[in-house]
Design goal:
- The protein is mostly beta strands.
- It contains no helices and 20 strands.
- The strands form 5 sheets. The chain has a 5-stranded mixed sheet, with no helix packed on it. A 4-stranded antiparallel sheet has the order 1-2-5-4, with no helix packed on it. Strands 3, 6, 7 and 8 form a 4-stranded antiparallel sheet that branches.
- A hairpin with a 6-residue loop joins strand 7 and strand 8.
- It is globular and about 70 Å long.
- This is ZP domain-containing protein.
Length: about 300
């Protein structure tokens, strides 16, 4: 069996990364290493080198407080051996003071293929710009926008499939969680609050007015979500945006006539596998985290 004896050198630049992976005694084929979806820039019998921009290779950008991180995975797999391998790659920086999610660039719904770029941000009260504060009084609304840039894709609908609040920027097995969206698009928090999805302005955006809750009161709170971009002609009970309206029941955001999609919100909405748009299929998902934000009790 092959064993990896490895040395990794990582150089994090301002908008690029250079990674050198040196093999020790294994007989691994260094051409089979991948950084995200990128092939090595160069390789030899014992070394794989990647010199790439953060805009390439499916790097994930995570912004938490005063930190900005770019994360990816270095992987190895071979059809000729059962060996597979994955190693995290992380570049961390101080968050630029003038950085906000790029939510406002014009988005044109065109057909074709290309990479998707998801965004997730705290907004001001009318969703016209970034939030001026990350502190919210208990019971007030936390305006949240999720969006996907899709310049070279067919028009897509953006959904929030699952969202939980936690007091940590990374979810751990021991993390205490507060469910916000569950059952693949059901805003379960709206059962006990005035939280709601706002009418869409664009198919590629989703606005959520989340009523500030008691969970994590006075602590740093992070909202972890699964974002989904999906073919609007292929909706089902696992691709929806449902919220509960008092005395009316569950409502479907995109078409009130399809409120039947929400019928499973208090039971179990079974899902099918998400298929890649790059292969001509119907959707793509992205994990995202928002925060930290603070919920304060004005009466405390």
């Amino acid at each position: 069996a092959l064993e990896f004896l490895v040395y990794m050198k990582l150089d994090c630049g301002t908008d690029f990364v250079t990674l050198v992976w040196t093999e020790g005694r294994s007989r691994a084929d260094t051409s089979l290493f991948r950084l995200g979806n990128c092939f090595p820039t160069s390789f030899s019998a014992t070394e794989a080198v990647f010199s790439v921009d953060f805009d390439d290779c499916d790097f994930r950008r995570i912004v938490t407080g005063d930190r900005m991180m770019f994360t990816n995975d270095l992987t190895y797999s071979s059809d000729s051996t059962p060996l597979s391998f994955s190693h995290p790659v992380v570049c961390a920086y101080e968050r630029p003071e003038d950085w906000y999610p790029r939510l406002y660039a014009p988005i044109f719904n065109t057909y074709g293929l290309g990479d998707l770029e998801f965004h997730f941000g705290l907004m001001n009260a009318d969703f016209s710009g970034p939030a001026e504060s990350t502190s919210f009084p208990l019971g007030s609304f936390i305006p949240i926008m999720a969006s996907v840039a899709q310049e070279s894709h067919q028009p897509l609908l953006l959904f929030l499939q699952e969202c939980v609040a936690a007091t940590t920027p990374e979810l751990q097995p021991e993390s205490t969680l507060y469910p916000i969206i569950a059952n693949e698009g059901c805003l379960v928090d709206s059962l006990v609050s005035r939280s709601k999805f706002e009418p869409r302005q664009k198919s590629s955006e989703l606005h959520l007015s989340l009523q500030a809750f008691r969970f994590g009161l006075g602590e740093e709170v992070f909202i972890h979500c699964k974002l989904m971009a999906w073919d609007p002609n292929s909706l089902n009970n696992s691709k929806k945006a449902c919220h509960y309206v008092k005395e009316h029941g569950w409502e479907q955001l995109d078409n009130s006539a399809s409120r039947y999609l929400c019928a499973c919100c208090e039971s179990d909405c079974k899902s099918r596998r998400v298929r890649s748009l790059a292969s001509g299929k119907r959707g793509m998902a992205q994990q995202a985290v928002l925060g930290p934000l603070t919920i304060t009790d004005v009466n405390y």
